[in-house]
Amino acid sequence: MSDVRGVVMKRPWDHQPWVEPYRLALLETNLDELSQRIQVAKTAIGARIGELEDSKNYTRELHELNNALKVLRVMLERGSVRCRVEGA
User: Fold this and answer.
1) What is the pTM for the complete model shown?
2) DSSP string, the chain
3) pLDDT digits (tens, 9 = 90+) for 67-78
């Protein structure tokens, strides 16, 4: 069995501008800031999707971009539900 501790998997798109706003949204714990982080990430992701729209070489990244949008949508829905419950 090989030891994989300390190994960081790099993906070809890790340097793309959408990755950092997405990570920041994932790590945001302040509900007051969450929707803003999500919006910034969605804008960056949308811009990258627009760049790749006609490309056949970036299908893996497009798949990841679409998954990221789904995650952000769920985070936004759960965050707003949490705000309503806590505010009630």
Assistant:
1) 0.77
2) ----TT-----TTTTSTTHHHHHHHHH---HHHHHHHHHHHHHHHHHHHHHHTT-STTHHHHHHHHHHHHHHHHHHHHHHHHHHHHH-
3) 999 999 999 888
